Amino acid sequence: MEILLSSLAAGLLIGMALALVALGLTIIFGVMDIVNFAHGEFLMIGMYTGLFTAQATGLDPLFTLPVAALVGFLLGGVCYYGFIRFLIRGPMVAQLLGTFGLMLFLRNLALLIFGSEDRALHHGLLVGRSIDVGMGVIIPATKLAAAVLAIFSFWAVWMLMNRTHVGKALTATALNPQGARYMGIPTEKMNALAWGIGGATVTIAGALLVNFWSVNPFVGLLFTMIAFTIVALGGFGSVRGAFFAALVVGLIMEFPGFWDFFSYTFDIQWMYDIPMTSFKYTWVYLAYFIIMVARPRGLFGWKH
Amino acid sequence: MEALRNAFDFSDSPRVDLVIAAMVAVALLLFPLFSPSSFAIATIIQFFIFALYGMGWNTIGGYGGQVDLGKAQYVGIGAYTTAVMLIRWDIPFWVSMPIGMFFSITWSFIIGYPLFRLKGHYFAIATIATSLVLKDLFEIWDFVGAARGLEISPIKYSPPDFLRLIFKQDIYYYYVIFGFFLLGILIINWFRRSRLGFQLRAIKDNEDVARSLGINVHLSKVKTYAIATAFVSMVGSFHACYIKNIEPEDTMSLDISILIALMAMLGGAGSLWGPIIGAGVLIPLKSYLKEWLGARGGLVGIDLIIYAAIIMVISAREPRGIWGIVERVRRRKRL
Amino acid sequence: MPILDIRHLVKEYGGLRANDDISFTLEKGELLGVIGPNGAGKTTLFNCIAGLHPVTSGRIFFDGQDVTLKPAHEMARLGLARTFQVYTAAGDLTVVENIMVGCFLRTRSRKDARRRADGILYDLKLSDHADTLVSELPVPAQKQVTMATALGTAPRMLLLDEVAAGLNPSEIDDIMTSIRHIHNEMGITVMLIEHVMELVMNVCDRLVVLDYGHKIADGTPADIAANAEVIKAYLGERYVKEHAGELS
Predict the structure, then answer these.
(1) What is the pTM of this model?
(2) B104, B196, C48, C243: most buried, per Cβ within 10 A?
(3) Quick check: C232 pLDDT over 80?
(4) Which residues of chain B are within 8 Å of residue C44 when distances are taken between CB atoms?
């Protein structure tokens, strides 16, 4: 029972942080129908930013989030104006490979600059602390903080998208770029803004994650795949869908915990024998495949 | 009979292309006689391998326009089938290779049916997902060595062993893969002129039009996917004998899948010579960059940075690849 | 027995009825025109008949066989071909290769497909363009190629979707010649959607008029030209009332 509850809690907490990871991807896709393979690399940059600002200032990465956000915003903007702008004129094949090139570029740039070793944050306000909520469930403070701040950021972006003029202009660009242009909306700037916001949210997520997740130049791909799964599940382009889908994916990632719960509770021998922890992410990939084939529009899809 | 004649019929290619192709082929045939460095031989073997992968990808990805980023799973199936059969039961390469192809094609039908319900980005990401699932499975599967992988120990055999494809000198591998390479060109030449090839080109253009012309779009895609798979699996088997040490991480990783797609993309997807040109540019570039900058300069990753920059420039500036440039120049001359 | 028999066909897109209870039949060897204002549901009707979109309710019989939910590629095999308004021809296929795609429906042999394609090119007077890329052709010739490609499937019935749109009078004449050739010499039943009245009135034996998804008239071109409801659909009710005297 304890395993079940703590797996549930862990899944939901990580899910909330993942929601923020996927948010940027779904915004960019919603606004301009392009899939960014370098999304996980943006996250990696956010993680390094959080790590280094924290180490340099002696503060917890939670306090240097604005720096990470700024880095992400600029990164998104630069990528858009310097590269993506040219890419979106070409066929889809070129878009896929282009953002893939961007991914390779950022990943190896990180390798060149930071080296391949795992880096983790050892000191911080919350590192090592935890809250015992009873019934055997112990929640690490870092994860709780990440979840809370992720929800807050998510809410802020949601308000921005739905309650402000800029947000409405973004939505208009998403629904009908040509119509938006006729209405006098600078769609080019809107695209850049989508990349800026997308970049900022994912680097914030990175800075939050680095509190409990070590970073190396290759960490991106896993998160790209996780974000793809979330976005596919939630419906490409849907912000609200991404949030709920992230919780589901968080729980899928805790599948080994649930597996253990069943094997202990019912004492099923063959279930012990399967090393489920090494399948932790396989379920995410498998979930993507099954969801897409069964429901190509996702669970809350709104755009084709 | 007619299929065979079609495979050898290059009459729709301009003569200058054929002359250049023949010259390159002769040069490649004679190259090892000039006692080149083992590094150069290894690089050209890599070129053959990736040109063949790229040709396979080109059938479904180039002619069919279905961006498949999961080809590495078939490299894995081919390589592992050959390695396992050789190590465990001493089954020679020429038997295990077709068996590996059979496994690959079976698997491609199993996942191809659901996969091709998806289109565009969704399809591309789903192919990545299937490939990664298979890789994760291989990483814990003890029968195939799990994450440690498998090693074919050449000491057990007496090279040159043509049946098992175990050689000490790379020159043997060079000529074996060169044979595959020529065969591959003939198969692709047949494919692009065949009924299936025409149907696929129509599908890439517009699926509704294709459907109205009586083409079973889903079935044509699945069939072509199987052809692409057979290519990749065949070379995967060769790869196992050549490298002798296979692990899930370097036979089935996403990077391999991307590299395969890249060969065709860079050279020109949907053209006969595209993947060969792509591999001819990218593979030497990659290995020499790595040799000069990575190993000697101590700058890890810089080869891939330059590599990635090239991909980015190509995809933004000339999405039809090098062959696209050639054709544009030709058209301008004609007009 | 009619070659095409449509009974109470209904097609809805998310609650919107694009085709509402349409019934008519088409005899072998007829040349039928489907006309109507924009958004009347003409292309939807074609998509349903050709099997590209499943009908919501109603039945379609082709040559006596119930083909209501048959997929498009099977319809083509049964002998029904169609052209498209916007035909974005494959950039890397030549004219003859394009037609060969159609011909490959009836043969596996490349040589055979090529021979059939050459025949069609000759019939439609396109032989000069055989080795040109379709994307490099002028628009009128592209329209001819779309018809030629559909003919490649050796159809018994051909659906033409606005093949004359955007052409000048002499180009329309050429298209009319081709359509008559397909109908009279090749003996193919033709059903066409067209806005160019000159073509419709000159070529068709019979017209079906759609408006807001309903069939509002069915008859010879002369009947249709005099039909009050058709005039109302095209010109608007007010216009008809105001000019009541002139029209009758």
Answers:
(1) 0.85
(2) B104
(3) no
(4) none
